[in-house]
Amino acid sequence: MVAPQPLDDVDHRILAELTRDGRLSVTAVAENVHISRAHAYSRINRLTEEGILTKFTALIDPIKAGLRSSAYVTLKVEQHAWRELREQLSAIPEVHHIALVGGEFDVILLVRAEDNVDLRRVIFDELQSMKGILDTQSLLIFEDLDTR
Questions:
Q1: Which residues pair with 98 in a beta bridge?
Q2: Is the pLDDT at 148 greater than 80, yes or no?
């Protein structure tokens, strides 16, 4: 990976366009940012090579996709367990986001499941049985708002 260059206004505008709609063609990005297609292509390529753009993905409506039960789950973990736990947590299909944080707990997860029975299974059977996890707390999500 190439060392990142400082981002300028054009870079920020390109990132904003791709954040709004990751399916935009290079031509559409160029038109929206008011630069040439070749310039947009080279900028997007550089942002990707530098690891600033890491992936293009689709956002789904979890309810419409059959994931009717969601929670943020906080974890307290043994200090030395993070690296191994990171891999194990990443392998759980219902875990949609993982963040190592500072504060009252060490890790926060976004868990999406088909229903409360499935959510319970993930939390009690999978997460709480992992070596290195000392404690969990679950915060049920009643409504999601995507602000992007």
A1: 109
A2: no
* 67: number of Cβ within 10 Å: 19
Q: At 98, which amino acid appears?
A: I
pLDDT score of 2: 62
Round to whole Å and give the CA distance between 33 and 20.
Answer: 13
Answer for the pair 30, 36: CB distance below 8 angstroms, yes or no. Answer: yes
Q: Is 3 exposed, middle or buried (0-12, 13-18, 19+ CB in 10 A)?
A: exposed
User: pLDDT digits over 113-123, tens only?
Assistant: 999 999 999 99
CA–CA gap between residue 129 and residue 107 (Å, rounded): 16
Residue tagged 């707990």 (tokens): 105
Run of H or E including 111: strand 107-113
Instruction: Find the helix or strand (DSSP H, E) in which 140 lies.
Output: strand 133-140
In degrees and rounded to multiples of 5, residue 116 shows phi and psi of -65, -30
CA–CA gap between residue 15 and residue 9 (Å, rounded): 10
Spatial distance between the Cα atoms of 75 and 146, rounded to a whole number of angstroms: 24
